[in-house]
Amino acid sequence: MAATVKYADVEVGTELPLRSFPVDRANLVQYAGASGDFNPIHWRESVAKAVGLPDVIAHGMYTMAQGGRFVTDWVGDPGAVVDYGVRFSSPVVVPDEGGATLEISGRVEEKLDDNKVVVALTARSADQKVLTRAKAVVRLA
Amino acid sequence: MALNRDFIGRTFPPSQPYEVSRVKIREFADAIGDQNPVYRDQEAAKAAGHPDVIAPPTFPIVVSLVDNGLADPGLGLDYAMVVHGEQRFEYTRPLRAGDVIVSTGTITEIRSIGKNEKLVLETEIRTVEGELVCKSYNTIVERGV
């Protein structure tokens, strides 16, 4: 079960429409607690700046999780993801005031056998590409 | 600082068994802002063909980074300078509530890229019964100064 997107209905080039995901400091604190990654660069500006970062940055895995959510919402079943990988090309800088926005879009890059397709993701924040080589292999209905 | 090349190919002892709970899955799903009912509601998960609630695709990071050996002082890794370079998961099936899993990490690569040091850690996540659920490929970069 239970992907809602049918393999027969997608082609190479099928677009997954862009969505915006806001991220603020409270999200990062909550993610630190849930994931166990308490690196202070994700919640303390003084530490982030002391190690040469412009400000607090999001956990790479938080950004990757938003990409995962983008794909699984499209497919309809998170269990349909068989492979998911990303490269963290640029940090998502999260200011104290206002936070940041992640903009994620996708495109079917390849159709494989066994109803699987490769979805290539694009993720940007503040005009920077924050993920590159971001690809998920999902099994469609 | 250069990482100890003797660690290339080293497999660390398996982690302590970790029991995946419904509460932890829900906490993680809440933290990533994902309201999908298959992470929270057993009936919804069953309707989707799963025996119990499943975990989001990036959840295995929670267990792949526990007791993974990178803290071994002999390796020489300065965690304050570490950034996550790449991450990939290959899934045999989704992790789900009730799984008791053990992760075993192997350093497959260490090399210099300019002033930085790159390290790749591959982690196998298996149930205590031995079923391979997921493989994690974690690339970290220790920034040089």
Automatic annotation (TrEMBL), chain A:
One of its GO terms (molecular function) is fatty acid synthase activity. GO terms for cellular component: fatty acid synthase complex. This is Dehydratase. It comes from the Bacteria. GO terms for biological process: fatty acid biosynthetic process. Residues 19-119 form the MaoC-like domain. It comes from Actinomadura syzygii. InterPro entries: Fatty_acid_synthase, HotDog_dom_sf, MaoC-like_dom. Belongs to the enoyl-CoA hydratase/isomerase family. It holds the Pfam family MaoC_dehydratas.
UniProtKB/TrEMBL annotation, chain B:
Gene3D superfamilies: Hotdog Thioesterase. Coiled coil: none annotated. It comes from the Bacteria. CDD domains: R_hydratase_like. Pfam families: FAS1_DH_region. Signal peptide: none annotated. This is MaoC family dehydratase. Residues 7-135 form the FAS1-like dehydratase domain. The lineage of its organism: Bacteria, Bacillati, Actinomycetota, Actinomycetes, Streptosporangiales. InterPro entries: FAS1-like_DH_region, HadA-like, HotDog_dom_sf.
